Amino acid sequence: MARVRLAKIVRTLPRRAHELSRATVEQSQRWRLIEAMIEVAARIGYADASVATVIERAGVSRKTFYEHFTDKEDCFLAGYEVVSDRLIADIVAASAGHKSDAARRTAQVTKFIATLAAEPAGARVFMVDVLGAGPRALKLREQVNRRFADALFGDAPVDEIRRTAVVGGVNNVVAGALLAGRGKDLLELAPSLSDFVRSALR
User: From the CB of residue 174, how many other CB atoms can be counted at a distance below 10 Å?
Assistant: First the structure.
């Protein structure tokens, strides 16, 4: 989560500047800044993160930062979108090969929690720090929650209120565990949360 596998992407790029096109250099810089933003927020929290700490971690100049992002919030939201897209993709992929809806939803919830459990610090950024990152972050979080609900329920006859309540319930339980320092134990929540999601259709 905290690295979102971005470091691996960056490491596959040529190292010498003269080997890189301008577009590749800019892409590499953007990934490094996003990765740094998530790592800094995971370490000290979004509120205490600053452009200075992010550019120091990314190894780029302040000028480069502002060529890609308008401010700290803009960079954080870009990172949040990267993590969100990865999580939703994992949830969708986890649904493949399951004949029953119950098995599919169990696999999806388990994958969601397993992805977060793999990087508890980054998971806290995604589940907790985003709540204090401002109105734009909350709006984006709401969009992500709807995508999460759509991945879980699809075309099932579950009304909007129940969809929102179920996803909110899962998020609150996971966030509570992260705040309590039980990030490495998140997978223990999977059976109960899977049953909770399935019960929404009963």
Answer: 24
Q: Which residues, in sequence order, are CB contacts of 41 under 8 Å at separation 6+? A: 49, 76, 79, 125, 129
Task: Kindly tell me the burial class for residue 41, based on how many C-beta atoms sit within 10 Å of its own C-beta (0-12, 13-18, 19 or more).
Answer: buried
pTM for the model: 0.78
Q: CA 135 to CA 74: how far, in whole Å? A: 12
Predicted confidence (pLDDT) per residue in 128-168, tens digit: 888 888 899 999 999 988 888 888 887 777 788 888 888 89
CA 18 to chain centre: 34
Tell me the C-alpha to C-alpha distance, in Å, between residue 159 and each of 79, 148, 202. Answer: 30, 14, 13
Q: How far is CA 53 from CA 40, 41, 83, 111, 151, in A?
A: 7, 10, 20, 32, 36
User: CB under 8 Å to 9, separation ≥6 — which residues?
Assistant: 31
Distance separating alpha carbons of residues 105 and 175, to the nearest angstrom:
20
